[in-house]
Amino acid sequence: MQTWVIRGVVLAVVHAVAAVLVAMLKASEPTGRTFVEALVLGVLVGVAATWAAVDAWRGVADRARAWVIAALIAGWGSAVLTIIGRAVLVDQTGTSSLGSALTGGAAFTALLVLIPAGLGLIVGTKLERPSPTAGKRRKSGT
């Protein structure tokens, strides 16, 4: 399976779940959402940055292209899943919200994946990989 499929689908689900949870919080308590929104945004950015850094550290082939495509998949997938989740769980959001979700919302989510992933790829290439013999014990000459 292509690496971008897994990354895109997982991040789309993660972003959609986070968006629906924040919408549920806004509906139940409109004044106490600032800290939670910032925390959720930080977690979403951290997931993409960490996963991309691990990809770079492991030396995954064609990782930059995989993350660009994954960001696009995550953006559009998250937009559709968020509309479905909000319609079912929060406020009966209709298909009239789908247009703005597929444009502005998808672009925002794609950037929330792409920019941290790019930084993660840069950081991951700078990390030192363990040597293959680091875990093996040296035999004594006796």
From TrEMBL:
For this protein, the parts annotated as crossing the membrane are: 6-23, 35-54, 66-89, 101-123
Q: What is this protein called?
A: B-4DMT family transporter
NCBIfam families, alphabetized? B-4DMT
Q: Which domain of life is it from?
A: Bacteria
Q: Which UniProt keywords apply?
A: Membrane, Transmembrane, Transmembrane helix
